[in-house]
């Protein structure tokens, strides 16, 4: 039995306060009662979180490693997150810097089914960055989205991914859309001999998710896009664990901003978009790219890519997938920054090419290969 | 057809930048492509978000009301949240101040099945604050938790609620625990003629949730505790909509801290713990009380209670449930602050009473009634 270890940065006015806050976390995240009412014996000795290390971490902040018994986490990724940060997330000035699940929880959460190697095998792209155009905008009908998918496939896309906001909306209902896009990719395959992976956006409501998963698989989707911030990391885990389904998971960061916009709270970028995605079974982790519409810094983006690919991390290494403001013009810069084991999302800028969208993808391929 | 209206506070260096950021949100939350590639016609005219109002909001901030077409949201609460704040949550300095779903989406999301009136009817407590002791700590076995439940019932608890961290852990596996606690409450009912509502904490993993819901109902739980921050607001909605199940939902705020610790980002407390809980179908919304271990201010707590009970809000008014640092000594203060339509969580302090826990609950009842 090895314990879960979580590193927190804690703001405090002095060391005594920092230690008191760390002890507060150790109780809050487990027994959630004051120390004097914790039953003696195993609960006090093993279940209450344990401060393993503690030291200063810059001005007004301390770093504490607190360990937890795996029995506090059970076999549910959501309960594991509850132990890592559930209630403490609501206290000001506590930030999760690292999560090391330990061997016991690693065995319970084996992570990605495919990982980098598996996704490469599925796409046939064994070397070089993977190119993933995004099917959008919301409001297009299934036929129009399918035509974009077909052009992208002809242009050499490795993956076509639906925009995360396509849901199950009147303009392009989930089932009609998946069927149309899948048929378009079959057609492209007949023409080129190659079919890109196709990640369908998995919509709710809750009651229809199981049917939607089964439908997507049967209709020819070869991957699923999920949004853990909206639908739980437990959904990624449910898909990743399903041997019969055996579909790769792409995780989109919608509504996870609360974890990263408060520099004194939340979680480090590498934890939420790297470690936790890996633990929950995602094969590809989408995040907002530096220099696009979002405020993520180059350092933050690099830390995400590093956490996704760290050979020591939980489960298999997975593919980081920067999106937002990505374009052919930035291919060299992006290649230099992220290297080869990466899924490049191409969104709005690509649509500008209209009917020549396939040529844009071919240009992106050439630019990436030239930079490699 | 009425549009969803979301009020954002946007940080900017000047009005032009504020307007550009507001326009950015209108595109980001819908079509997610640059304006020049939005197809003309219905997508440009109706699907792209529309800036309805805009004005200054203190130094360096602007307030913008942006409206969205209900067709962007479908009938899934998670997709509605995706439109409200999905990608924009990851941009710095954007805060959601209000969500007004409009009639179309109100009809799709009817909200709480029971609400304040329904929960009162179920408990038989038609007037005065409701008292809800929490069964904990994590690590106790089912028998020990059941004994606490029994004593609480004898003491006059209106609701007994499991700690949100009980999950499905080796110390007190979900099924054994629910059976033991339910049997203890049956015994109390035989002694007193009264059985408190019993909210069981609904654990994952995802694959077992449906079975766990059915088991809880069959075994005698009369409510379910869910954590939307861990398992999605869609789970609350799934339970609330189930006519055959017909169980009230208590929503716990675990892992929602990211929405509220960044004063320039995230969401106002009343939105996340009031409006969204109502929209998703929760009957009771738990939040950290002022003056306890958490940093919520009295004003923030009042805004949550007001949003839960606002007669103009979506669905029925629901019960705010402040927890953390609640005790008999604070009953008068709490009664003055929150009034009667409230569920008072009693946690760690109560356990100090040991075998006299029932007497503590009776004291709380007397203190609340005296303050009323």
Structure notes:
The structure is a homodimer of 372-residue chains. The first copy, chain A, is built from 15 helices and twelve strands. By secondary structure, the first copy, chain A, is α/β, with parallel strands linked by helices. Chain A has helices spanning 15-28, 42-47, 77-85, 102-108, 115-123, 142-154, 174-192, 209-219, 228-231, 233-240, 269-280, 298-309, 331-338, 348-351, 357-371; strands spanning 4-11, 50-56, 61-68, 94-100, 130-135, 159-162, 197-201, 223-226, 249-251, 284-288, 319-323, 343-346. Chain A has an eight-stranded parallel beta sheet with strand order 11-10-9-8-7-6-5-12, with helices on both faces. A four-stranded antiparallel beta sheet of chain A has the order 2-3-1-4. The mean pLDDT of chain A is 96. Helices cover 41% and strands 18% of the residues of chain A. In chain A, helix 10 (233-240) packs parallel to helix 11. Chain A is elongated and about 70 Å long.
Name its key features.
homodimer; 372 residues; alpha/beta; 4-stranded antiparallel β-sheet
Spatial extent as radius of gyration of chain A: 22 Å
Question: How many β-strand runs of chain A?
Answer: 12
Helix content of chain A: 40-55%
Could you say which structural class the secondary elements and strand pairing of chain A correspond to?
alpha/beta
Terminus-to-terminus distance of chain A: 44 Å
Assembly type of the chains comes to: homodimer
Determine the strand fraction of chain A and express it as a percent band.
Answer: 15-25%
């Amino acid at each position: 039995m090895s314990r879960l270890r979580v590193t927190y940065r804690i703001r405090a006015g002095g060391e005594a306060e920092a230690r008191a806050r760390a002890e507060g976390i150790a109780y809050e995240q487990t027994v959630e009662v004051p120390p004097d009412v914790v039953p003696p014996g195993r609960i006090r000795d093993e279940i209450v979180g344990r401060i393993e290390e503690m030291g200063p971490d810059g001005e007004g902040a301390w770093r504490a490693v607190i360990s937890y018994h795996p029995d506090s986490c059970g076999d549910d990724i959501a309960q594991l997150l509850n132990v890592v940060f559930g209630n403490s997330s609501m206290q000001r000035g506590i930030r999760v810097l690292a999560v090391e699940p330990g061997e016991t929880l690693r065995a319970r959460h084996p992570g990605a089914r495919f990982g980098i190697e598996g996704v490469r095998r599925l796409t046939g792209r064994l070397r070089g960055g993977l190119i993933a155009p995004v099917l959008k905008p919301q409001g297009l009908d299934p036929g129009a989205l399918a035509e974009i998918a077909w052009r992208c496939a002809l242009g050499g896309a490795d993956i076509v991914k639906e925009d995360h906001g396509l849901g199950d909306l009147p303009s392009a209902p989930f089932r009609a859309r998946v069927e149309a896009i899948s048929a378009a990719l079959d057609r492209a395959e007949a023409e080129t001999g190659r079919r890109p992976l196709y990640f369908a956006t998995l919509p709710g409501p809750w009651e229809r998710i199981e049917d939607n998963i089964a439908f997507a698989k049967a209709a020819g989707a070869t991957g699923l896009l999920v949004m853990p911030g909206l639908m739980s990391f437990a959904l990624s885990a449910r898909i990743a664990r399903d041997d019969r389904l055996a579909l790769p998971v792409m995780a989109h960061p919608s509504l996870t901003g609360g974890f990263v916009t408060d520099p004194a709270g939340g979680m480090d970028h590498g934890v939420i978009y790297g470690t936790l995605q890996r633990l929950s079974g995602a094969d590809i982790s989408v995040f907002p790219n530096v220099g696009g519409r979002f405020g993520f810094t180059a350092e933050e983006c690099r830390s995400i890519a590093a956490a996704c690919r760290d050979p020591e991390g939980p489960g298999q290494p997975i593919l980081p997938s920067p999106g937002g403001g990505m374009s052919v013009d930035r291919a060299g810069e992006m290649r230099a920054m992220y290297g080869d084991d990466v899924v490049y999302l191409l969104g709005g800028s690509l649509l500008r090419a209209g009917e020549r969208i396939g040529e844009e993808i071919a240009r992106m391929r050439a630019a990436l290969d030239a930079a490699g």
